[in-house]
Amino acid sequence: MSFPWAEQYEPKSPFMKWLDSRLPLPRLVFNAVGPGYPVPRNLNFFYNFGVLAGFALLVQIITGIVLAMHYSAHIDTAFASIEHIMRDVNQGWLIRYLHMNGASFFFIVVYVHIFRGLYYGSYKAPREIVWMLGVVILLLMMATAFMGYVLPWGQMSFWGAQVITSLFSAIPLVGEPIRQWLVGGFAPDNATITRFFSLHYVLPFVILGVVILKVWALHIPGSTNPTGIDVKGPQDTLPFHPYFTAKDFFTLTLYLIAFVAVSFFIPNALGHPDNYIPANPLSTPEHIVPEWYLLPFYAILRAFTVDLLFVPAKLWGVIAMFASILLLLFLPWLDTSRVRSANYRPVYRIFFWLLVVDVLVLGYVGAMPAEEPYVRIGQLATMYYFAHFLIILPIVSAVEKPLPLPNSIAEAVLGKSAAQVAAAPSGGVVAQPAE
Amino acid sequence: MVRLVGMALGLVFCFVLAWAFLVPREATQPDPVKLLHREPKEVSWPHTGPFGKFDRAQLQRGFQVYKEVCSSCHGLYHVHYRDLEKIGFTPAQVKAIAAEYEVPAIDPNTGETITRPALPTDKFYRPFPNEQAARAANNNAYPPDLSLIIKARKNGESYVYSLLTGYGEEPPPGFEVPDGLNYNPYFHSVNIAMAQPLVDGQVEYADGTPATVDQMAKDVVAFLRWAAEPELEVRRRVGLASLLFLSILAVLSYLTYRRVWADVKP
Predict the structure, then answer these.
(1) d(CA B209, nearest CA chain A) in Å
(2) What is the pLDDT of residue A79?
């Protein structure tokens, strides 16, 4: 694992030596996030979002465990038990608002993390599995967040559950039985809330497991970096501790400031007021919208408005919505350019920023009612989304002429002459390529 | 292979979307109700803004309006009488307020269903035993619970204030208000089942504040904001302290980061 010049763990005290030969946990930490893990020295602040996402997951797990102590998963008591938490449990409002807004912040950092990966080509060899595990985490997060939103049993909980589970009824022949099997009845009811609570509790631990696999897979080649070129020698890296622990801690404080500002001063700004109305199966809200982080996918679902090629519009929408996420699994093979970083890919860079704008437009359209001009804007934006990944990306990576790459990370950071000086004092060790 | 399948799939999606884009749309008539509907008025309270605090006297006046006007139809499902101590009532006053209401109970000796005076630990008295009774008494309309109304409506406070003060306008000629409903342009369908609840001088404030419709609406909205978010003041206080702490921590951690990296950057 890692690079040959990585610092080796040396237990100092007799106790640590004793422990190291029996349970080498300190060694594991040393090599994973300590001085034993060399990291490219030129990582910018966008590379801190992975650590922030891990922190956000832990916040969700801890606050969630506490909430589960006071929550009652029953259609007759769920709504009142949330109000009990907000009013009568000591600091219950704090725990719940942190959990509620923590989900939004988790998605914010994960989306920045994903777009950082897209910009710097983090999905390319040899990191395909790191990327694919990330897509699995995204899917698990969406499922977990959706089921969590159902638990307060407000109006949006109920009608969101109704809309999302009815997507499965679009599958030909077996769709309706599958929907009833998932929901546990003909409509969301007590059977739904109990199973969603059970899954909402367990899935975060599954996410944690996939995160561990992802970090493990990441540590084989190490992080990418803004130049996209491979680490060539010790002059290109710095040990994770203290350099990146210090940097991550600083970004963590900035993240916490934003998180606290929203959770304490505008805690309901990212939610929907209808979810403070108890669920009523007889009264449909005027506009049913999912949580903001699912809006782009909701826009894709609704962009398909005509039956065509013997496939009903609803089924087109469902296929496209799932395809829009699953296609990310194939991204390492859709993009064949050997240059990773968009800094050296002038054509790809333009399309990357178009994609960023496109996803924001999709999110906006997802929040709007299904009427003109929003439907047509959503259809154009959905077209670009699929064209970007499935058509433009393979063509651009085949025809694009990338800019010249620097010879090494150290050269990119320090300039040519300084890089040679920096390489020289490393004890005359000949820098070995990582692969 | 992946790229060929992907490209084919991409072309199919784009074709279907382009078709859907080009399909002519049916001309839609603008909804007449939408043209009459109005956005809520802009109002502010002493507790508006990140540093605002509730005015205890206003909350007590608002409680009086709720008790004497709203509570004949609307419940406050999630609030207990004991909570009133937080808006400045003494424990004895709270006990007296609670005792004005009779709540269902079980006789401990006979097991029969009886009623007893409410205690501070009881939740607020509900004007109707269930939804059916409420609808039967209100021309089939269901007066919603008010304990979360400010959080359960877009622009919560401004909306409720506008609704309470939005009566009295004549609907435009040609617009029929159905029987049993009342015209109020701030309600989403502009026809609301609730009749105008507030008229000037409807309550008599103990502190001598003139009981105009505007004043009573402001007071009761402030009270309802408190009922929806009783933690508001402590939340802002803790939030401010947390931000202060985190700002100092951010500065220190930035200095640490610069110190650690001092020997690295050229």
Answers:
(1) 31
(2) 95
CA distances from B257 to A122, A247, A257, A414 (A): 25, 6, 18, 19
B-contacting residues in A 307-326 (Cβ below 8 Å): 308-309, 313, 316, 320, 323
Give the start-end residues of each E strand in chain B: 102-106, 113-117, 182-183, 191-192
Inspect the interface and report whether the beta carbons of A334 and B253 lie closer than 8 Å: no
Annotated catalytic, A416?
Answer: no
Q: What span, in angstroms and rounded, lies between the C-alpha atoms of B22 and B28?
A: 17
Q: What is the pTM of this model?
A: 0.91
pLDDT recorded at residue A429: 41
Q: How far is A203 from chain B (nearest CA, A)?
A: 29
Q: Is B151 helix (H, G, I), strand (E, B) or coil?
A: coil
Q: Quick check: is B240 in a domain?
A: no
Residue B143 in contact with residue B194, Cβ under 8 Å? yes
Domain holding B183, by residue range, is 32-79+123-230
Q: Can you list the domains of chain A with their CATH numbers?
A: 30-282 (1.20.810.10), 289-403 (1.10.287.980)
The tally of domains found in chain B comes to 1
Of residues A324 and A435, more confidently modeled: A324
User: Which residue in A248, A274, A335, A411 is the catalytic one?
Assistant: A248
pLDDT class of A425 with cuts at 50, 70, 90: very low
Do A277 and B249 lie within an 8 Å CB cutoff? no
Q: How far apart are CA B150 and CA B155, in angstroms?
A: 8
Does the residue B85 lie in any domain?
no
pLDDT digits (tens, 9 = 90+) for A147-181: 999 999 999 999 999 999 999 998 888 999 999 99
Range list of H helices, A266-404: 295-303, 313-326, 331-334, 346-367, 374-387, 393-399
Amino acid in the structure at residue A389 = F
ipTM metric: 0.91
Q: Taking the CB of residue B168, how many other CB atoms lie within 10 A of it?
A: 11
- A72 touching B (Cβ < 8 Å): no
